[in-house]
Amino acid sequence: MKVLTATQSTQGQRKNDFFKAREGEIVGFVSECDGEAVDGKCGCKRCMVGVASGSVTTTMKVEERDVTIGELEKMMLDYLVSSGWITKERTVTGTQVDSDGVETPLPAVTLKGYLEEDLKWARNMALDVAEIARGFEVGMVIEKRGATYRERHGESEHAARDAHRQSFKNGEVILFHHPELKTDIIVTFEKRNPKMAVVIDENGKRYRVAYCFLSKIV
């Protein structure tokens, strides 16, 4: 069946993206703050939670997994227990009132087993995750914007910039789009740094430039 999983894909498309979950783990829902904006500091209106790690992500992927709705429900139940939202054991206390109206404390009793409302919570969470996943194709990366779920497209800005940086090789002849001369000059790529590159023009002049001004010669 289709489920939603945590993914780092497209992280960085939004400046307030975050990924703390484990790649590939199935996700469920977080508790949302009243009055919180979608892009608020809390982040609860735009994220989901990994049911294994209990950690959150703003990017989710639709995947086909060999699980049943019952197994998914059990995952959600285990998450709710491990995160402290529900418990399998409860201590119940009370008093007994005699004919004279005198109250006598009764011994505490430990009750074992889940409440029906807790089981329903886990069941509904599993059904809702499955319902959202059915609305998208397998492999799609989606985001949560309040009560709306929608597909994301393309890679993150960080990944795109990194791929561009790594595409140049030492000694390679490339184009430098000179921002002041407003023209392209032919240069040789000399050195790669995390944020800037060093290139040399035909006259031996060195430039320390941002990678966005460099491109391949087609």
Describe the structure concisely for a colleague:
By secondary structure, the chain is of the alpha+beta class. 20% of the residues lie in helices and 34% in strands. Strand 10 and strand 11 form a beta hairpin.
Walk me through the topology.
Layout: E1 2-6, E2 27-28, E3 48-50, E4 56-57, E5 60-64, H1 69-82, E6 89-97, E7 103-112, H2 116-134, E8 141-145, E9 148-152, H3 157-166, E10 173-178, E11 183-192, E12 196-201, E13 206-210, E14 214-215
Antiparallel strand pairs: 1-5, 2-3, 3-4, 5-8, 6-7, 8-9, 10-11, 10-14, 11-12, 12-13
Helix pairs in contact: 1-2
First-residue to last-residue Cα separation: 46 Å
Number of helices: 3
Number of domains: 2
Strands of the biggest beta sheet: in what spatial order?
13-12-11-10-14
Number of strands: 14
Description of the structure:
The protein is α+β, with helices and mostly antiparallel strands and 218 residues long. It folds into two domains: 2-104 and 114-154, no CATH class; 167-215, SH3 type barrels, CATH 2.30.30. Helix content is 20%, strand content 34%. It contains three helices and 14 strands. The chain has helices at residues 69-82, 116-134, 157-166; strands at residues 2-6, 27-28, 48-50, 56-57, 60-64, 89-97, 103-112, 141-145, 148-152, 173-178, 183-192, 196-201, 206-210, 214-215. The strands form four sheets. The protein has a five-stranded antiparallel β-sheet with strand order 13-12-11-10-14, with no helix packed on it. A four-stranded antiparallel β-sheet has the order 1-5-8-9, covered by helices on one side. A three-stranded antiparallel β-sheet has the order 2-3-4. Strand 11 and strand 12 form a beta hairpin. It is elongated and about 105 Å long.
